[in-house]
């Protein structure tokens, strides 16, 4: 429920951003946590900090024309929403997916403000992308698209201004093509302008693994706070992209067993535990589907259009995309004895699903806390680029693990302090909000 003092403010956000349902959803979730904050700090209401946070500092929408391998011309729409720079340069990924429109970019950018604040690193919040579908596109088509995209984007970004990275549909390959074009246009080798670079030319070790690893670490911390551990736990990880693959790898290293993963076509159930090396081969090297994994893994079963959340488990990690886990799925998970859920993706649980988890009092880690390891390691990449240094895998992973424990503890303490013990949604929203709100007041009305 939104506090009555904030109802009008929220109604205005909805009215000012018509049709952007994902943005409304992300904003509502934060608004629902903020009542007690304004009661405690009325100066933040006087300064209209919430209203200011909800209005992006700058929004860029642009045409991205490109030619496919047969010479046919395509026109896509590119976006960059520079949401908030109170803590540092705008920071956040680029998503290439046909579902991308302003409402998706704004929900992601809004989440990113609080997520980035929670990491404790000096980064503001932003997000971008295009309604481009990379599925089935050749390497050269991807390259031409990235070059066209950057030909507009380059004038808006910079290591001290706005630092994009990857998200769905954008990985090391795309970051390479984007950086190449940026370097060519600007005649600057400005390593810190993009993160998620390959480790052969300025990328940080652990960045590829960081979001998934971080989600597994966050899960470990939530279980630890309840006197439990990942040891022997049966785990579901939806998705099979970069976040999912490395969440699976780290869960296995921490003693759990991931018995299923998925993609947009179906679900693979592998009771012996997912073979991460085979999954990497299929997904990263061959750019294949989980059905290809199932075909090569004797005992695994593949179900087209299956629902992963129906498989009994102790822990669920939604790592695919927004609103993939519904109220019905949440009730199934709770009924099957699931004790912890951590969001590796951004907003994968519907509001009803989140309510079910909170009412059942299972450990529920929202994305802006549980998947912050990716962007935190991007900030570590920026740090290495700025000092022209490169750290070892061990050192970087150690930093990541510390950051995730820190985020967990911050959310845990904040929830307790505001009268909602064990509620990581309230903890993450309030802690993230306060970290941005205070510098916004300090910097004056800008
Ligand atoms: N796209 C990722 C996220 O949702 C990473 C962003 C970044 O590294 O800048 O946090």
Write the layout of secondary structure elements.
Blueprint: H1 4-16, H2 21-40, H3 42-46, H4 49-54, E1 58-67, E2 73-84, E3 90-96, H5 102-119, E4 125-130, H6 139-153, E5 162-165, H7 172-186, H8 207-225, E6 234-238, H9 242-253, E7 257-262, E8 266-269, H10 276-285, H11 290-296, E9 301-304, E10 315-318, H12 327-335, E11 340-342, H13 351-359, E12 363-365, H14 367-370, H15 373-386, H16 393-417, H17 424-442
Parallel strand pairs: 3-4, 3-5, 6-7, 6-10, 10-11, 11-12
Antiparallel strand pairs: 1-2, 2-4, 7-8, 8-9
Helix pairs in contact: 1-2, 2-5, 2-17, 5-17, 6-7, 8-9, 8-15, 8-16, 9-10, 12-13, 15-16, 16-17
The structure holds glutamic acid.
Glutamic acid binds at residues 91-93, 115, 165, 167, 195, 346, 374-375, 378.
**Please, what is the oligomeric state?**
single chain
- The Rg value, from CA coordinates, equals 21 Å
Number of helices: 17
Give the biggest sheet.
7 strands, mixed
> Strand order, biggest sheet?
9-8-7-6-10-11-12
| CATH domain topology of one domain | Rossmann fold
| CATH level 4 superfamily of one domain | NAD(P)-binding Rossmann-like Domain
Low-confidence residue ranges: none
CATH architecture of one domain: 3-Layer(aba) Sandwich
Q: List how many beta strands DSSP finds.
A: 12
CATH class of one domain: Alpha Beta
| Fraction of residues in β-strands | 15-25%
What value does the average pLDDT take? 98
Identify every distinct bound molecule in the structure, by name, code or SMILES: glutamic acid
Q: What is the chain-wise order of helices and strands?
A: HHHHEEEHEHEHHEHEEHHEEHEHEHHHH
